[in-house]
Amino acid sequence: MRFGARLISGDKPGHPVLSVLLIALLVALAGAPFFFPGTRSLAVASQICIFIVLAASYDIMLGYTGIVSFAHTMFFGMGAYGVAIPLANGWVGWDAILLGTVGGVLLAVVVAIGIGLLSLRVQAIFFSMVTLAVASFAQLLATQLRGITGGEDGLTFSVPRVLSPAFRLLAQPLFGVRLDGRVMTYYLIFAVTLVLFLLMLRIANSPFGSVLKAIRENGFRAEALGYRTVVYRTLAGALSAAIAAVAGALMALLLRYNGPDTTLSFSIMVDILLMVVIGGMGTLYGPALGAVVIVLAQYYLQPAMQALSDATAGLPLLPAIFHPDRWLLWLGVLFVLIVYFFPAGIVGSLRGRARKG
Amino acid sequence: MSGSALAPILETRGLSIRFGGQIAVDQVSCAFHSGTLTAIVGPNGAGKTTYFNLISGQLRATSGDVFLRGARITGMAAPLRARRGLGRAFQLTNLFPDLTVLENVRLAVQARAGIGLHALGLASDHVDLIERARFYLNRVRLTPRADAAAAALNHGDQRKLEVAILLALEPAVFMFDEPTAGMSVDEVPVILDLIEAIKADGDKTILLVEHKMDVVRRLADRVIVLHQGALVADGEPAEVVASAIVQEAYLGVRRSEAAHG
Ligand SMILES: Nc1ncnc2c1ncn2[C@@H]1O[C@H](COP(=O)(O)OP(=O)(O)OP(=O)(O)O)[C@@H](O)[C@H]1O
Ligand SMILES: [Mg+2]
């Protein structure tokens, strides 16, 4: 296999349009601070990266083993609190970040294995219910243990100097962009995203990944071949949880804050589900594209509607339809349209077309 | 038979299962020896498939025991039994529908190789496993369809794939459940020749559920008869097939075969 193909573990996008989209995404993200200067655009690009990791890691559960978990934001939160707690307590250093991330990942893995072994023996639907219960409990815990988690208010903290906004890598701007701590933070997030995404592609195309697909297709038959579905699903859950926790650590570093609303809320869980379904389950590339669509919509749909609303100010009805307060409605419309025209998600539908054509 | 003097590889003792009020398998005690092919016959609903499910672990016995190489495996989960060498093919085709034909077989080869938990290498780098999968596909004459989705195969080819998956598991005990049912006349010999080839290995144990008496006479060393869940006859093919009880069961089969078309 050629080097490029090996890098993506031989998992070709499967449609020319898809290849173009993915390469464009990679280039755009790699040069984001230079192509889209400004604090807000950098925040958007960072969020896109983090949600690519989060949605793709969720896909390992939903897309590759076919089970629905509602605990993904809980694992996301574990990584975020893992980083936030030591930093907020005045231990500001890379060792604290590393240790906090490892701690969050380990906790996520232990809890994921516990949930898996307890409930996957029974039935997939039981697993979903248990994840919902455990995630609600974790949310409650985070808001109640004020002394550790900061409760509803969360934790605000400083980050190592290199990542803080005041830091300057070069005295002079490069291509007109000041290489400050925000840019450093972005590239840290981007690098981790790239590595984790390639890692997930590899796992999906490993012998282990092939068993996950087999279990999704026909668990009964996989068992008859000698694969213990509980073990495989539990491990997939642990892996997915571990990667979500790393994404959480990145989120905390980006915001220099962590609280229940930024990492634990169920509305984030809904966003993740939308990303995976819109992009196409079980493809990894799909959830990555889904993450782009949803994050962009969240940031730019409202301003775009404001503009439309203003532009149509003199006309009847239209300004009301495009009133920015209705942006959720339009997000819903967008979702329905995508599901209608791409029932297998963006990637699934394009691949289906490539196979026929 | 040379194997009969030795300890049996597989044995059931008083094996029973009840579904609600109905006894589907009723106190079946039977020992199977290496190197023999045992045909299991009986009318529709006699409990043959259910007996298989109890042996390979898809169902749990209400009472009685299963022993493999002398070890009690009655409560063991199906995957562990498969790894200990109980290989099962299904009467109702049971495949990975959206995966390719080759991948269906490769998964069986991979299970046999025991590398399913390897998460950091690429499956496509295990060229030896892919070659083995191709080898078994070739044995059932499915090589031209290797890249098709399993769901896209016609019924006869799906039956062949089912057999290829079992072969690829390379088990000690082969359990075939009506492998040729619904196949066209010219496809049947491919499967029967394969079963004969496994038999010729000499050290394999084969359990074959089969309705067609000519197949039974051709392949079996021994025939057991299930009737309403109970084992009612056991012996040499010629003698069992001729017995009154099989005549009754066989006629029952003939009727149902006519009904199936
Ligand atoms: N899971 C189950 N739940 C309830 N009843 C079952 C179940 N499996 C089998 N049975 C019943 O057990 C009896 C034996 O069925 P089985 O499939 O073992 O028969 P068989 O001998 O394989 O028949 P055939 O020749 O038609 O394949 C039937 O009456 C069937 O309805
Ligand atoms: Mg049957």
Blueprint of the fold:
The complex is a heterodimer of chains A (357) and B (261).
Chain A (H helix, E strand, L loop, with lengths): L2 H5 L8 H15 L1 H4 L3 H27 L6 H17 L5 H26 L4 H21 L1 H4 L5 E2 L24 H24 L2 H19 L3 H27 L1 E2 L1 H5 L1 H14 L5 H27 L6 H4 L5 H15 L3 H12 L1
Antiparallel strand pairs in A: 1-2
Helix pairs in contact in A: 4-9, 4-11, 4-13, 4-14, 5-6, 5-11, 6-7, 6-11, 9-11, 10-11, 13-14, 13-17, 14-17
Chain B lengths: L9 E10 L2 E11 L4 E5 L6 H9 L6 E6 L2 E2 L5 H6 L2 E3 L12 H13 L13 H13 L15 H15 L3 E5 L10 H14 L3 E5 L3 H7 L2 E6 L2 E6 L1 H6 L1 H17 L1
Parallel strand pairs in B: 3-8, 3-9, 6-7, 7-8
Antiparallel strand pairs in B: 1-2, 1-4, 4-5, 9-10
Helix pairs in contact in B: 3-4, 3-5, 4-5
The complex binds adenosine-5'-triphosphate (ATP) and magnesium ion (MG).
Structure description:
Chain A is mainly alpha-helical and 357 residues long. Chain A has one domain: ABC transporter involved in vitamin B12 uptake, BtuC, CATH 1.10.3470. In chain A, 75% of the residues lie in helices and 1% in strands. Chain A has helices at 3-7, 16-30, 32-35, 39-65, 72-88, 94-119, 124-144, 146-149, 181-204, 207-225, 229-255, 260-264, 266-279, 285-311, 318-321, 327-341, 345-356, and strands spanning 155-156, 257-258. A two-stranded antiparallel ribbon of chain A has the order 1-2. In chain A, helix 13 (266-279) packs across helix 14. The radius of gyration of chain A is 21 Å and the shape is globular. The model of chain A has no long low-confidence stretch (mean pLDDT 90). By secondary structure, chain B is an alpha/beta fold. Chain B has two domains: 1-85 and 171-261, Rossmann fold (3-Layer(aba) Sandwich); 94-170, no CATH class. Chain B has nine helices and ten strands. Chain B has a six-stranded mixed sheet with strand order 6-7-8-3-9-10, with helices on both faces. Chain B has a four-stranded antiparallel sheet with strand order 2-1-4-5, covered by helices on one side. Classes of the chains: A mainly alpha (357), B alpha/beta (261). At the A-B interface, helix 10 and helix 11 of A face helix 2 and helix 3 of B. The structure holds adenosine-5'-triphosphate and magnesium ion. Adenosine-5'-triphosphate binds at residues 19, 24, 42, 44-50, 91 of chain B. Residues 48-49, 91, 177 of chain B line the site of magnesium ion (MG).
